[in-house]
Amino acid sequence: MEPIKGAKHLEPTNDKCPIDGATLDLYSIFSMEFEGCPKCHGMWLVKDELRKLKNEALEGRLHWLNDEMDNVEKTTAVPSERACPKSHGKMLSVAFGKSSIVIDWCPKCHGIWLDRAEFDSILEYLNTEVADATRKDIEKEIIQDLKKLWKGGPEGRAAEVADIAAAVMALANVTVFEHPALFRFLTNTAAAGRSVGMD
Fold first, then answer.
1. Euclidean distance between CA atoms 45 and 35, whole angstroms
2. Could you tell me if 44 and 51 are in contact, meaning their C-beta atoms sit under 8 angstroms apart?
3. 3-state SS record for 34-66
4. 160 vs 57, 64, 144, CA distance in Å?
5. How far is Cα 197 from Cα 130, in angstroms, rounded to an integer?
6. Which of 34, 54, 117, 196 yields a CA-CA distance of 20 to 30 A from 128?
């Protein structure tokens, strides 16, 4: 069983699992590589790999949600008994965003350890954040992403443009559902287009 459904097993590594001491294996998904434990099915993500995985999952719908990623290092942390797989000493346990999900983070190499199924829990939490986002939340995120595009941010410019595009789509969805007349018009227009063979 792979740490993320659909991940391809590549080869063993020299790193050890912070849970059970097993040798971590290298996996590949979404054109990126990460390490996972063949016993406990936890996963080790180096700096920014969690963001990259989140951006690719669920057809990119979560691409624009970056506050949780940006704030992992700024949140309240407590010492963990778990050791960094890269031999940097003990990690810190931190809450992911406003969720009850606790992840382990290495303050030296900035890697993140996710226990089995925590990545799926993070995606569920972020999906809830999308569903609960207000127009102001999304507009704020668009402004922040525009600033990152201009000044540079943790992601490359192409990723920042993708963040903006995903946020604009989320804003369009919120706008359509806030205005029932606009929603009916668009729904009827789409149905009329389909009835004459326009898909």
1. 7
2. no
3. EEECCCCCCEEECCCHHHHHHHHHHHHCCCCCC
4. 16, 8, 10
5. 33
6. 34
Extended strands (E) in the chain: 8-16, 23-29, 32-36, 43-45, 77-83, 90-95, 102-105, 112-114
What are 36-69's pLDDT values in tens digits?
999 999 999 998 898 888 888 877 777 666 677 7
Query: How do residues 108-156 score in pLDDT, each as one tens digit?
Result: 999 999 999 999 999 998 888 877 777 787 778 777 777 777 777 766 7
pTM: 0.73
Rounded Cα distance between 30 and 57, Å, is 9
Q: What angle do CA 181, 183, 188 make, to 5 degrees?
A: 95
